[in-house]
Specification:
alpha+beta, 12 strands, binds flavin mononucleotide
Length: 268
């Protein structure tokens, strides 16, 4: 009799909890995604909020996206860096959790974004952002200084001495916390994380093209040295480096030029 009562109680609790569990499994809000925002930190820099700036339509950005490896001797504007970061991982909706500019498998959001800022690399009005490594907080659209000093040389060494990494005024580094996605999808989660980094990367490319800036996806680097250069957390694996800057030369094609290009390819 007593046993029956215990079984009935367990069944009742399970019945009540099941919808909640289901909801949780379908829409897991990882710790970093929960609505309660973390307390503002002292060294936090609130970035200029995104607004339409380029006036470039998507088709033009696609047409003029190119990998850029040579930079004009000019800094990045903080407003532009803010747009690039927002394009990579910024927030666009609150639907019980924060949705972002880039899609994410199961909304598990495994990516963490850092910026390596060189000396006088990023201008903010009449002053410059302190050289160092910053971490992007997508929920607050802010940067937090995590390491002081110009780390571009360490980044360049880690990136197999690709000069465009050393010479760019700043580099965006995309890292992954795999467990956020693999804890839900197992081995397949690795594939999803890499796809997601590609989505974020393409957003950076297109936003850069729209702003008349340049970038290049850099995947060739020493993982450990790169993690060390940016002071990544032990569970953050660097996947991609995007040096960004003002291009020495801009790639430009008109839609008329594109038509000629296709006419040539169709002639064979
Ligand atoms: C996954 C991946 C890794 C890449 N790694 C590097 C790299 O380490 N260094 C580099 O200079 N370019 C790198 N690139 C950029 C390619 O070289 C470039 O996209 C390609 O030459 C085509 O040129 P486009 O981007 O201008 O169309 C990488 C691109 C991808 C997609």
């Amino acid at each position: 009799m007593k046993m029956k009562a215990v079984v009935a109680a367990i069944a009742l609790v399970a019945a009540l909890a099941a919808p909640l569990l289901l909801l949780h499994t379908r829409f897991p809000a990882p710790a970093a995604e929960r609505p309660e925002l973390p307390a503002q930190q002292a060294a936090e820099i609130l970035l200029p909020l995104p607004k339409p700036k380029s006036g470039v339509v998507l088709e033009e950005a696609l047409l003029n996206r190119r990998s850029v490896r040579e930079w004009a001797p000019e800094p990045l504007e903080l407003e532009d860096l803010a747009l690039l970061l927002w394009a990579a991982q910024g927030v666009t909706e609150f639907a019980g959790w924060y949705r972002r500019t880039a899609p994410s498998a199961g909304a598990t959001y495994p990516l963490e974004v850092y910026v390596v800022v060189g000396e006088r690399g990023v201008r903010n009005g009449t002053s410059y952002l302190e050289a160092g490594v910053y971490k992007y907080n997508p929920l607050r659209h802010s940067l937090t200084l995590v390491a002081r000093g110009d780390r571009r040389r360490e980044l360049w060494e880690a990136a197999l001495r690709q000069d465009w990494v050393r010479d760019a005024p700043a580099s965006i580094v995309i890292c992954a916390v795999y467990e956020r996605t693999t804890s839900r999808y197992g081995e397949r989660g690795y594939r999803y994380v890499h796809m997601e980094a590609g989505h974020a990367g393409q957003n950076i490319y297109l936003q850069a093209a729209a702003l008349g800036l340049g970038t290049v996806a850099v995947g060739a680097f020493d993982d450990e040295a790169l993690a060390k250069a940016i002071g990544a957390q032990p569970n953050e694996a660097p996947l991609y480096v995007f040096p960004v800057g003002v291009p020495r030369e801009r790639y430009r094609l008109t839609f008329e030029g594109l038509r000629e290009l296709y006419e040539a390819t169709r002639r064979g």
